[in-house]
Amino acid sequence: MKLVLASNNAKKLAELQALFAPLGVELLTQGSLGIPEAEEPFHTFVENALTKARHAARESGLPALADDSGLAVESLGGAPGVLSARYATLFGRIKSDAENNAVLLEKLAGVEDRGARFVCALVAVRSADDPEPLVAMGRWQGQILPALAGEGGFGYDPLMFIPSLGRSVAELTSAEKNALSHRALAAADLAAQMRAVWHLG
């Protein structure tokens, strides 16, 4: 079964393709089909993911999968939240992982409570008007480090320390991250729903 992924992020595509491979699902990026990115006007991961999934399904005529994920820092009231990918632009900086990480470290300077979690909302729809979207959430708890650690991953991975592992997410192998991450947790839930409701796998 072909599913349009409402993202053009190559690393996210690779992660999700590996996670959904057991279902016999092939993911295609919306960009490869000439579909522009949808607006993400909402304040919650679930609403944005649903909007993106419906947009990709409408434009492609195929079932679609959308991910909306980010970092929620407890002492910042859940920020950067749905604005995680463009957090730096809120402060006049360019959009990049490096700038996002730099701004986050500035905001947490001198802050003792560094609890945070990666959050992922995954939504799958059979069509743009599917009345029964499949929705899954995954959360991965950790702490924000005072400095970058590790070379792997992307986004805030070098700053997210997982106490139970004693390493940052950027210090994990791809296999470790795919087994433990917020996206892995949401994907496992969504895959179970796809088996039960869509009769895949």
Write up this protein.
This protein has helices spanning 10-20, 45-60, 97-107, 174-180, 182-198, and strands spanning 2-5, 26-29, 64-73, 115-125, 134-144, 160-162, 167-168. With 201 residues, it is of the alpha/beta class. It has one domain: Maf protein, CATH 3.90.950. A 7-stranded mixed β-sheet has the order 2-1-3-4-5-6-7. Helix 4 crosses helix 5 (182-198). The mean pLDDT is 95.
CATH architecture label name: Alpha-Beta Complex
Distance from N terminus to C terminus (CA atoms, Å) equals 10 Å
Mean pLDDT value? 95
Proportion in helices: 25-40%
The oligomeric state of the chains shown is single chain
* DSSP helical segment count: 5
In CATH, the topology is named Maf protein
CATH class: Alpha Beta
Descriptive labels:
single chain; 201 residues; alpha/beta; Maf protein; 7-stranded mixed sheet; 5 helices; globular
Brief overview, please?
With 201 residues, this protein is of the alpha/beta class. It contains 5 helices and 7 strands.
Secondary-structure topology with pairs:
Layout: E1 2-5, H1 10-20, E2 26-29, H2 45-60, E3 64-73, H3 97-107, E4 115-125, E5 134-144, E6 160-162, E7 167-168, H4 174-180, H5 182-198
Parallel strand pairs: 1-2, 1-3
Antiparallel strand pairs: 3-4, 4-5, 5-6, 6-7
